[in-house]
Structure prediction request, 418 residues.
Amino acid sequence: MSTAQRSDPVSREMQNAFVDGQLDAAEWAALLERIGSDADLRIEICELRATQDMVRNAYADVMPRARPAAAGWRSWGLAATLLACVAAGWFAHGLLETGRGPVGASGAAALRSVDANRILVHVSSGQRESLRTALDEVEDLLRSARTAGRGVEVEIVANSTGLDLLRSDASPYLARVSALRREFPNLTFFACNQTIERLRERGVTVDLLPGVHVAPSALDQVVKRLHGGWVYIRA
Amino acid sequence: MPFLRLFGPSGEFRRRIEQSRDMLYRLAYAWCHDAPLADDLAQEALLHALAREAQLRDPERLKSWLCAILANCLKDHHRRRRDHLSIDGIEESATDAGATPEALAAVTELAQRVRAEVARLPLGQRQVLTLVDLEGFSYAEVGEILAVPIGTVMSRLCRARQALREPLMGFATTPAARIRSVK
Prediction:
């Protein structure tokens, strides 16, 4: 940003940068002097500040709806040390590489290699391939544990379009989910109530498969399990 | 096939995530003006963050990292809903569903009237404006969060405030408005 010459009009970008504290000291001082001698510019700046204040105040009291007390958010600070289960090299990404595209281990043996007895698998995508892979991984894990004589507990928590997995009216893997539930009593399914509510608000009837539990939200269930020392795996 | 993300978040990381939930919700609401959707977006962003702690190389930048995740969650939401439109088109087009001028004009409270004006801005302008005004991010940080050049941040912010000034000054009884009225 270059400092405006005294005779030049001060650009709107410069005015905004002044209001937002984005100018360096010299630029700021030069513009401040200019403001002192230019009544029109003073009004411009004053209105910009007022606009900013009004926007700020308009959202000051926006808060999420009350969350269930049992969810354990407020007791996170007391949680015991959790099992770190981070595959080396998976996270060699930049700070702002976020939320996009799969980041993870390759190979179907990834979940089987998890050295933990209580594992939460979170499913948020309704894509058939993604759901099938998640079920494959969970089944592999449960069989491996059974063969090794290792007692494990696994929860599949579904939200967003991933909820389709647990809907009797929408699941592409109805028979398989039911079969897994029958074969592995140590496998539990949870549906996100927040997602169910959204669907119902849109007039969608949600019928869950038998035996599927409902959590207040996927996030609350994940937090609750983390508090209990579970390992969280995002499919 | 890439599949899993494993993690074991530290207590400190989780505590800071917990403290960020309200901030993310407020920002999501300011972007979409739809309370249920804001809830979903904030939840999704936090779940992403919980699964990716190790990607956060500088803990001091947790807030901007979370906001970047939130921005991507919103993009993904639009992509799912309108995959026939380009994201750029959405960012430059005005007014989200659920925040129609007719519906929002019906409210009378000043805060709600201001929100209605913000909701009329194109998404890209709305995001820049609220990241700067509500969360106090620098222009450089906003550029990183939204993955746009700083010049784009400045021009979007400039257009957003220009669009808001007249209607907001009309609502206000601030000294600025009074000065303007007697000028």
Q: What stands out?
A: Residues 1-7, 176-183 of chain B have pLDDT under 50 and may be disordered. Chain B touches chain A through 83 residues (CB under 8 Å). Chain B has one domain: 11-170.
